[in-house]
Design a protein that fits this description.
Oligomer: single chain
Helix content: 40-55%
Shape: globular
CATH topology of the largest domain: Rossmann fold
Strand order of the largest sheet: 2-1-3-4-6-5-7
CATH architecture of the largest domain: 3-Layer(aba) Sandwich
Length: 340
């Protein structure tokens, strides 16, 4: 007869075996150290840094990845990543990354920068690294404010946004308009991928990880400069709770900084190839029709006229090329570009 104590022991043993068999449901990626981060509650830096570490791990690039730290809230990133890290002066991360990649082209080089570091003091380095097509990956955190220094207006602060240095709101007549970095860099020939994401929900977190991983893959293929812009939160300097900060991000930042792919060299190459295929088929059909017409004229007036291209041939042509010409850019991104 089984006693209560025996039954309890058996239950515990079964649970232990089940746990050992299935393993942990969630664990820390080897790409991160055990260090406790310095980020405020509700800050999305921690989420993004984990995504970067996971992407590096999944690409088996842990042993050859080198990151460049900025000056800002993520200045201590070298304490959090388990790969090699280099500390750069304020705004100079792209220049440092350029030197690392040219000296060690086999390594996977990335920078991790905020909007003050990248879009303000480091804008020159950013633009020139991009236009040169430096084969590096940039992770750009856009939270529309200077975080570490106390909440001053950043190049990405919204019109009318209240900050420590714009207590009455950003005045576009004196401070200008916010800089849309992805839109600006997407016009440069050296850029292979420019995409804007966010991490305000499980769905967008998964999309952000996919984009970051793609950027690293493009780098390993030697396609050129890649940048992933992450629209992020700063609850402390915005003056919100973490939950309210996400609401403010959705209501205010995302309309001004719409998510989407702004440049993808692979997608553009595919579209160009599809366009060439369409043009070739149309030109061939036109040439065949002209040749047939010429032949009928030479044969004399009694010869039957050459038939035109059969309708089913045209339909077949359309059905073949249509899937290839479908744009891969998100609809909302295309409409936003068109509106601008």
């Amino acid at each position: 007869m089984m006693t209560p104590a025996t039954a309890s022991a058996k239950t515990q043993n079964t649970k232990a075996k089940t746990k050992d068999k299935t393993g942990p449901i969630f664990s820390r990626t080897p790409g991160l150290t055990d260090a406790i981060t310095n980020y405020c509650p509700g800050c999305t830096h921690g989420i993004v840094q984990r995504l970067v570490a996971e992407a590096i791990e999944e690409l088996d690039a842990q042993g050859r990845a080198v990151g460049v730290c900025p000056v800002g809230c993520s200045v201590l990133a070298y304490e959090f990543y388990s790969c090699d890290m280099v500390q750069a002066a304020h705004g100079r991360a792209p220049a440092v990354a350029t030197g690392l990649k040219r000296a060690r082209p086999e390594n996977v080089i990335f920078t991790y920068q905020g909007d003050g570091d990248l879009a303000s003091i480091g804008m020159a380095e950013t633009v020139h690294a991009a236009t040169r097509g430096e084969n590096i990956t940039v992770i750009f955190i856009n939270n529309a404010i200077y975080g570490m220094t106390g909440g001053q207006m950043a190049p990405t602060s919204l019109p009318g946004q209240v900050t420590q240095t714009s207590p009455y709101g950003r005045d576009v007549e004196t401070a200008g308009y916010p800089i849309r970095v992805c839109e600006m860099l997407s016009s440069l020939d050296g850029v292979a991928l420019a995409q804007r994401v966010t991490v305000d929900s499980p769905r967008t977190v998964r999309a952000a990880k996919k984009a970051i991983k793609k950027a690293f893959e493009y780098q390993t293929e030697g396609l050129g400069y890649t940048i992933i812009e992450v629209v992020a939160t700063c609850p402390t300097n915005w003056g919100f709770t973490p939950a309210d900060a996400f609401t403010w991000l959705r209501d205010n930042l995302l309309p001004y900084y719409p998510l989407g792919v702004y440049r993808d060299i692979k997608a553009e190459s595919k579209d160009d190839k599809a366009a060439d295929t369409v043009a070739d088929k149309l030109a061939a059909a036109k040439a065949a029709k002209a040749e047939a017409s010429t032949g009928s004229t030479e044969a004399g007036s009694t010869a039957p006229e050459a038939p035109e291209v059969a309708p089913e041939t045209a339909a077949e042509t359309d059905s073949e090329v249509a899937p290839e010409t479908a744009p891969e850019v998100a609809p909302e991104t295309t409409s936003e570009k068109g509106g601008e």
